[in-house]
Design goal:
globular, about 40% strand, 6-stranded mixed beta sheet, about 160 residues, disordered N terminus, single chain, alpha+beta
Length: about 160
């Protein structure tokens, strides 16, 4: 009976992790089913292939999202939240205008593939916690072009060095 339960728990854990599996190594999940856009790939600098992306406090985290847009949009706006215990906490990017310094040239045209790239500074003052980052890029109607969820851990650099030793 115990072996069966262990197998069930292991299978359930793998099923949950697979919901966040990204083909490019970064664990992510789409949180948008509107059909306005489709995420093709996601990379976060320094994340590697761990199920939880370790973001080091006091450094910049760079994210790149390849996507295809299915409706024209004159603008693009980044909206970012950290979800802690099911509560979304605003985590405003330094440049919320998705058409500036992001590799996007607005207006965005239906059927075109784009790569949105930006960085966000992980302040040393942030607590060392595990959370889910919800990153949305919204169109000129404030509807999601894409929405992704990325499990992360905010970690002190000194703690990372101690873990390696």
């Amino acid at each position: 009976m115990t072996r069966t339960m262990d197998c069930f728990v292991g299978a359930a854990f793998l099923a949950v992790l697979s919901m966040f599996a990204g083909v490019d190594g970064v664990s992510w999940k789409s949180c948008d089913d509107s059909g306005r856009g489709k995420v093709l790939n996601v990379t976060v600098g320094g994340c590697g292939t761990d199920p939880i992306c370790n973001l080091k406090k006091g450094t910049n985290a760079t994210i790149a999202v390849g996507f295809q847009i299915n409706e024209d949009s004159k603008t693009a706006k980044a909206v970012v939240h950290g979800i802690v215990e099911h509560i979304p906490v605003p985590f405003p990017p330094e440049q919320p205008d998705g058409c500036k310094d992001s590799g996007l040239n607005c207006p965005l045209t239906k059927g075109t593939t784009y790569v949105y790239t930006t960085s966000i500074f992980i302040k040393k003052e942030y607590p060392s916690i595990k959370l889910v980052v919800k990153w949305e890029l919204q169109d000129d109607s404030s509807k999601d072009i894409f929405c992704i969820l990325i499990p992360v851990a905010l970690t002190d650099i000194s703690n990372m060095n101690n873990q390696i030793l």
